[in-house]
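Q: Got a minute? One more chain.
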Amino acid sequence: MTVVPQAGHADPGTSTRGPALRVVVVNGSPSEPSKTMGLVDVVLDTLKGMMPIEVSRVDVYRLGAGFTGAIERDDVPIEVEDSLRLAEDADLLIAAAPVFRGTYPGMFKHFFDLVDQYALANKPVLLAATGGGDHHALVLEHAMRPLFAFFQALTIPVAFFASAGDFDGTTLLNPRVYGRVEVGLADVADLLRARATTRR
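A: Always. Here it is, folded:
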């Protein structure tokens, strides 16, 4: 399934804290399950503790031949168009990818090649990546952030990275990564709440 709706409330009292933030995860990992989504799950669980959220997910490697063969937006089938619009209409976009050969996978880039040039302008985008070692963390600043600068997106200052040694299988264990996620989201919580309240 390409787009996966997920429950968003952390507890019964969460719904009293304002409108739900519509979060869309664009998952660039070919694996299921994956370390990349293990990191994203920690981000989502932390965010759920701060505000009500509604989460959907686009798995770019499961969008099918109509996606991989498309050169222009007009070429994509309706289900891929729905996935593109889902990402474009998010209150918060989480762009998550593993590092291959020093950068994000081609399928991840291809998805954003089809996104409208101005659809992400001023949209909060949170960057997350995983790789074999800490040196791969540079992908966040040298590859992913420039990609979303092209779209004039509002990339969240703190990005999240976890290396293979931070996991047991696909479960994130490193407390330092948990701490970075907590601090990074706390710093932008007010911005995200305002985004949900003032969505157009």
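A: The helical segments are 35-48, 65-68, 78-88, 106-114, 138-150, 175-197.
Q: Perfect, thanks.
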